[in-house]
Specification:
The structure is a single chain. The protein is α+β, with helices and mostly antiparallel strands. The protein has a single domain, classed as DD-peptidase/beta-lactamase superfamily (Beta-lactamase), CATH 3.40.710.10. The chain contains 10 helices and 12 strands. The strands form 3 sheets. A 7-stranded antiparallel β-sheet has the order 2-1-12-11-10-9-8, with helices on one face. Strands 5-7-6 form a 3-stranded antiparallel β-sheet. Helix 2 packs across helix 6 and helix 5 packs across helix 6. The longest helix is centred in the middle third of the chain and has 15 residues. The chain starts with a helix and ends with a helix. One of its GO terms (cellular component) is membrane. It comes from Segetibacter aerophilus. InterPro entries: AmpC-like (IPR050491), Beta-lactam-related (IPR001466), Beta-lactam/transpept-like (IPR012338). This is Penicillin-binding protein.
Length: about 325
């Protein structure tokens, strides 16, 4: 399946498949830098793109479990000047805030066409310019990177640490994730490009230093440590994890849904697949947790390849009864 979906179609990245925490298959293919031809190795970190949201969401859930915040706190608790009312932490987590996406409204302003923005720049822009809402709060699901960039700022407010420091101190270091970090503006001089399918590199762009919605870098083996920590409740309790993986977007009947930092697929037989894909520039990722089988599929790439999003189909090797449903899914 790996060969047919990725191996024969220009895959440039890493893949790991595990069952009960044990590696069944892994491979590292291609180059971390297409110009210098440095090979991808088990320690090569990849930009996780939106798969980063799993870390942001779980960081918030940990602070919630520690009673350092409430999921129904309004954003004015953390940002008194925030110009939109009726939005809560829970709405950010579940993409039900109705906020507009900063990756569109900031670059449309001439001031932010050619300089690097931070999370605080984004917040201040919203306070000063008040871009129009996408919809009223809690009216429906609208996937929006602004939500998770704001959640990263909430982590900073509550924890008294920068977001990169908090994740390093609370998740990465305790779990032994030695090749995982959050990229921020201070790292911009060491930026390594990702690539389009035709090998063209992506240069650093104005929105590339905002974190929380993206900008966690990791390896397949480190992501397996993250997966095992979730199974063993090392970050949050089972009850808190269960709360994070309950569907929050039920306006339209569908097997696809979103929890609090996790995409969900609820099969007709009630089996739940917990996952998050990602895309940013040439980076695209697949992190799929087949909870009923205690199995995990991790695919990370730095050269855009739509076949990565089909990685979930590898899960059919664990339980043939799920084959029909999984093979019908899309990103």
């Amino acid at each position: 399946m790996y060969d047919s979906m990725l191996g024969k179609h220009g895959f440039n990245g890493s893949i790991l498949v595990a069952k009960n925490g044990q590696v069944l298959f892994e491979d590292y293919h291609g180059y971390s830098n297409l110009h210098t031809k440095d090979s991808i190795t088990p320690t090569t970190p990849f930009h996780l793109a939106s798969t980063s949201k799993t870390f942001t969401g779980m960081a918030i859930m940990k602070l919630y479990e520690e009673k350092k915040l409430n999921l129904d706190d309004s954003l004015q608790v953390f940002f008194p000047q925030f110009p939109y009312s009726g939005i809560t932490v829970r709405m950010l987590l579940s993409h039900r805030s109705g906020l507009p996406n900063y990756v569109y409204f900031m670059p449309a302003d001439p001031e932010w066409k050619h300089k690097l923005a931070t999370n605080n720049d984004m917040l201040q822009f919203m306070i000063d310019k008040k871009p129009a809402l996408y919809s009223y709060p809690n009216r429906g699901f609208h996937y929006c990177n602004t939500n998770y960039a704001l959640l990263a700022l909430i982590v900073e407010k509550v924890a008294g640490q920068t977001f990169p420091e908090y994740l390093s101190n609370t998740i990465f270091s305790p779990l032994g994730m030695k090749n995982t970090f959050v990229f921020s503006i201070k790292d911009s001089a060491n930026y390594h490009p990702s690539y389009q399918y035709n090998n063209r590199p992506f240069n650093l762009e104005p929105m590339d230093c905002v974190y929380g919605d993206k900008n966690v870098y990791s390896t397949a083996r480190d992501m397996l440590l993250w997966d095992k920590a979730i199974y063993s409740n090392r970050i949050v309790s089972q009850a808190t994890y269960e709360e994070a993986t309950q569907p929050n977007s039920n306006e339209r009947p569908s097997m696809h849904n979103y929890g609090l930092g996790w995409r969900l697929m609820i099969m007709p037989n009630a089996t739940k697949i917990v996952y998050h894909n990602g895309w940013w520039h040439g980076n695209n990722t697949c992190f799929t947790r087949l909870v009923a089988d205690t199995a995990t599929i991790i695919i990370l790439g730095n050269k855009f390849n739509k076949g990565i999003y089909a990685g979930m189909k590898i899960g059919t090797i664990f339980n043939n009864s799920k084959k029909t449903e999984v093979e019908k899914t899309e990103e």
